């Protein structure tokens, strides 16, 4: 689960991290009052969407010469003007895709005198099984570009889960940044704070970009991006309350209510599969034969007839879907249950696009018989390669 920047800063502030004063608003009429709560005279007006690259983004409605989604304002009047331009318009960034995201919230923040911009993130390093700091002196830039062009400027520091962030870890991070004086002293408290926030709230990713050294020599979290492990949210009702469903795909929200692993994609062939590995293979083979998957949908190993029917209805609700491929290997999952769910869903919502079904494994013959005797226009496939070729050909 992702949250907005202003929410991430509230979470980090609760653990003691240094952040600037700021006020979130949802209406331009609130902009003046929000700005008056801040010291000024420099303000930052930030679009709040679940995507990076906001400062370099462009608003669809404002033309190519308009400012981006993060703007400096040097007066309260300028804050109000920017708020009126930004709220309700669609911001397109490198991470939103061409469709962009509508800006429904702004964060009005006190400005900062910046001396240096640094990059800092925490994530689970799968190669070591530990939480790691990923740090770079190249803050404010896309970390992917830094990794590609100057990988030597990225340093990874693994944290021992039993010891936590030790003084030696802090020294290593400070050295990687080249911090001295007050900034290095701030690092002694900040880096353990970030780690504690990550662990205590079950984050899956924490990115501070940039982490700044101000002209007075102090550290400050200038931007923050946080994702939580969805499987751990039952432990954190306070974090779950931060969810903004307007930033999520409606189909993904419905899928989460059925405990389905569903991600909307940009193609036109809907996929319903059991098992993440099989789902990835299914999407790959669709691309191999020249088409694009419209979604990733994993119904899991123990899905019920009702759950399968729900998944099918979510897939067919996508207007971009021109064909559907159901690919099931029945281990724990039984093929007859899948077949019953598909037939029930088709009878309820109708079938307006080609449907190819490949079943293999437990109760496969019963599953095939249910499909064959359904009287529905369902194309059977012998294996995954056959299934992919048939759905691609049917979509044309």
TrEMBL record:
Which residues of the sequence carry a binding annotation for ATP? 46, 53-55, 109, 112, 117
The pathway it acts in is:
Carbohydrate metabolism; tricarboxylic acid cycle; succinate from succinyl-CoA (ligase route): step 1/1; One-carbon metabolism; formaldehyde assimilation via serine pathway
State any GO CC term.
Answer: cytosol
Per UniProt, the cofactor note for this protein states: Binds 1 Mg(2+) ion per subunit.
One biological-process term from Gene Ontology?
Answer: tricarboxylic acid cycle
Q: Which residues form the ATP-grasp domain?
A: 9-237
Q: Return the EC number.
A: 6.2.1.5
GO terms for molecular function, please? Answer: ATP binding; magnesium ion binding; malate-CoA ligase activity; succinate-CoA ligase (ADP-forming) activity
Name the chemical reaction catalysed here: (S)-malate + ATP + CoA = (S)-malyl-CoA + ADP + phosphate; GTP + succinate + CoA = succinyl-CoA + GDP + phosphate; succinate + ATP + CoA = succinyl-CoA + ADP + phosphate
SUPFAM superfamilies linked:
Glutathione synthetase ATP-binding domain-like (SSF56059), Succinyl-CoA synthetase domains (SSF52210)
Q: What class of enzyme is it?
A: ligase
Q: Which domain of life is it from?
A: Bacteria
PROSITE patterns from the UniProt entry: ATP_GRASP, SUCCINYL_COA_LIG_3
Q: Give start-end of the signal peptide.
A: none
Instruction: For this UniProt record, give its keywords in alphabetical order, as a comma-separated list.
Output: ATP-binding, Ligase, Magnesium, Metal-binding, Nucleotide-binding, Tricarboxylic acid cycle
Cofactor(s) annotated in UniProt: Mg(2+)
Q: What does this protein do?
A: Succinyl-CoA synthetase functions in the citric acid cycle (TCA), coupling the hydrolysis of succinyl-CoA to the synthesis of either ATP or GTP and thus represents the only step of substrate-level phosphorylation in the TCA. The beta subunit provides nucleotide specificity of the enzyme and binds the substrate succinate, while the binding sites for coenzyme A and phosphate are found in the alpha subunit.
Family note: Belongs to the succinate/malate CoA ligase beta subunit family.
Task: Quote the protein name from its UniProt record.
Answer: Succinate--CoA ligase [ADP-forming] subunit beta
Encoding gene (name): sucC
């Amino acid at each position: 689960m992702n949250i907005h920047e202003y929410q991430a800063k509230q979470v980090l502030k609760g653990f003691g991290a240094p952040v600037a004063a700021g006020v979130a608003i949802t209406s331009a009429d609130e902009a003046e009052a929000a700005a008056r709560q801040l010291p000024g005279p420099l303000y930052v007006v930030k679009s709040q969407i679940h995507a990076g690259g906001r400062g370099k983004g462009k608003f669809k409605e404002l033309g190519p010469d308009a400012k981006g989604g993060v703007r400096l304002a040097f007066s309260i009047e300028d804050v109000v003007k920017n708020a009126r331009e930004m709220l309700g318009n669609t911001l397109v960034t490198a991470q939103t895709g061409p469709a962009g995201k509508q800006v429904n919230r702004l964060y009005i923040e006190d400005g900062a005198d910046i001396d240096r911009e640094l990059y800092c993130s925490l994530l689970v390093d799968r190669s070591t099984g530990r939480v790691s700091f990923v740090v770079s002196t190249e803050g404010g830039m896309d970390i992917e570009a830094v990794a590609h062009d100057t990988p030597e400027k990225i340093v990874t520091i693994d944290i021992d889960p039993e010891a936590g962030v030790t003084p030696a870890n802090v020294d290593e991070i400070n050295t990687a940044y080249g911090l001295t004086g007050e900034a290095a002293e701030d690092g002694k408290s900040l880096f353990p704070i970030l780690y504690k926030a990550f662990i205590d709230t079950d984050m899956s990713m924490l990115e501070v970009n940039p982490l700044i050294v101000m002209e007075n020599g102090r550290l400050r979290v200038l931007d923050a991006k946080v994702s939580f492990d969805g499987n751990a949210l039952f432990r954190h009702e306070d974090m779950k309350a931060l969810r903004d469903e307007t930033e999520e795909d409606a189909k993904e929200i419905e899928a989460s209510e059925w405990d389905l692993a569903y991600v909307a994609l940009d193609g036109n062939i809907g996929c319903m599969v059991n098992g993440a590995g099989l789902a990835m293979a299914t999407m790959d083979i669709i691309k191999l034969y020249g088409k694009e998957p419209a979604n990733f949908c994993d119904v899991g190993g123990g899905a019920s007839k009702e759950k399968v029917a729900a998944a099918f209805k979510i897939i067919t609700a996508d207007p971009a879907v021109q064909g559907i491929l159901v690919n099931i290997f029945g281990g724990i999952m039984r093929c007859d249950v899948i077949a019953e769910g598909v037939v029930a869903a088709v009878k309820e919502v109708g079938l307006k696009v080609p449907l190819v079904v490949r079943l293999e494994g437990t109760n496969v013959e019963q599953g095939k018989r249910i499909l064959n005797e359904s009287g529905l226009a369902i194309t059977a496939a012998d294996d995954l390669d056959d299934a992919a070729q048939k759905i691609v050909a049917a979509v044309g």
